[in-house]
Specification:
alpha+beta; 5-stranded mixed sheet; elongated; 7-stranded antiparallel sheet; 419 residues; 17% strand
Length: 419
């Protein structure tokens, strides 16, 4: 499997100028390629092949006075910009034809020099290298100082240089790693994700939500108010915009670090992890949108999934329509209504349930059934149908574990859609 290792880099002023030129050249090549293919599509002309596109927007363009400066950057950066254009069109056509899973994608859009995020990619053909002095050597840019937090396990196949909205630079390496299974343990866990408590486990543990965005709301409000009062296009507005971006970057970094630490701890301590597949996009359109985005459930579930593959654990997502909160984990009775305000309820069988803990226990039982059935889709459930309880499956609540040493985080961070 492939992982992405990201590190902060500190380019010199001269290197930042050369990186800015590389960002600009890649953007121009992408936009030129997009314009050619849009023209062909709108006029019912044959699709422009990659070879023809490379010849027109790179080889021939370098010979013209208007694009002669494309020769000042590595040719690999320009070729990767064309590859990104091709990938964008392929995803668009697959989405139209129904061959691509997920929501429908629109047509590729032009890149802007005002985009908050700029990125370029170097592959092995560019002959980038890590020097003996632990610097990143990039063609036509130079040796850049890197803040190494760990050693990549193998030689990277590509590196993406990223500049984010707050002005920070990152080097994101793609590295092929082999799964490294951890010793087997006897614990399995079901997880219920929420807003009041970020994680509630089937053994009764509750982990509060840090609410990183809420903590910085006051400062963000003050900065956004100052930003709105600055004249558009002025240097003062640009300075305040960077301050706002830095605050959001701190929120994102803190949230990512929390997700990494918690997901690593859960994967290390449990042989199997079962999580409910929440409809995050739907919840993000409700009045709870800010809290849902602040929690970052999808990112956390994604970390659990790839770490389970890396360390030889079992990870299963339970269907989002499974009534985990309304189902009694003791007798299997299904309650008609369960308002969100109800945090504790009593079943007709006499069992008293904490809403979240009961849901986590039901997720655990449902996940075990999926594994036993070969992870086939669960049948639809409706009405007052009685469901199989954890007691009837022969596996009740997992044993209470002893508090062990806190897990360490040795996985790489990642950034979305790196170039």
């Amino acid at each position: 499997m492939q992982l992405r290792y990201s590190f902060r880099i500190d380019p010199t002023p001269g290197q930042r100028t050369r990186l800015a030129k590389a960002f600009g050249c890649a953007r121009v090549v992408f936009n030129d390629a997009l314009a050619l293919r849009n023209h062909a599509r709108e006029n019912a002309l044959p699709f422009v092949t990659d070879a023809e596109l490379s010849r027109q927007v790179i080889t021939q363009a370098k010979r013209t006075p208007q694009r002669a400066w494309l020769g000042d950057v590595s040719a690999v950066v320009l070729q990767q910009a064309l590859a990104d254009c091709t990938t964008a069109f392929r995803n668009f056509f697959d989405s139209i034809a129904g061959r691509r899973k997920g929501p429908a994608l629109g047509a590729p859009r032009f890149r802007s020099r005002k985009d908050a995020r700029q990125a370029i990619r170097f592959t092995r053909n560019a002959r980038f290298a890590i020097t003996r002095g632990k610097k990143l050597r990039l063609p036509k840019i130079g040796d850049i100082a890197v803040r190494w937090s760990r050693e990549p396990p193998t030689a990277p196949s590509s590196v993406t240089v990223i500049k984010d909205a707050s002005g920070r630079y990152f080097a994101s390496f793609v590295v092929a790693v082999k799964p490294d299974p951890l010793p087997e343990v006897e614990f399995e866990i079901g997880i219920d994700l929420g807003l009041g408590h970020f994680v509630v486990t089937s053994d009764g543990r509750k982990i509060d939500s840090p609410k990183f965005l809420r903590r910085r709301e006051k400062k963000l409000k003050r900065l956004n108010k100052a930003l709105s009062r600055k004249e558009k296009g002025s240097n003062n507005r640009a300075k305040v915009r960077v301050k706002v971006a830095r605050q959001h970057a701190k929120v994102a970094d803190a949230r990512r670090e929390f997700h990494h630490q918690l997901s690593t701890k859960i994967i290390r301590e449990n042989q199997a992890v079962y999580v409910e597949n929440l409809a995050v996009k739907g919840l993000a359109r409700t009045r709870l949108a800010k809290s849902v985005h602040d929690a970052g459930w999808s990112a956390f579930a994604g970390m659990l999934e790839y770490k389970a593959k890396l360390y030889g654990r079992t990870f299963v997502k339970v269907d989002r329509f499974f009534p985990s909160s309304k189902l009694c984990s003791a007798c299997g009775a299904l309650t008609e209504q369960m308002p969100l305000a109800v945090r504790e309820w009593t079943c007709g069988c006499g069992a008293v349930h904490d809403r979240d803990v009961n849901a986590a226990i039901n997720v655990l039982a449902a996940g075990r059934r999926l594994v036993a059935a070969g992870r086939k889709p669960m049948p639809e459930m409706g009405g007052k149908r009685r469901l199989e309880t954890p007691a009837e499956t022969g596996k009740t609540k997992p044993p209470v574990r002893k508090r062990g040493r806190r897990g360490t985080v040795d996985e790489p961070g990642s950034h979305r859609s790196a170039a």
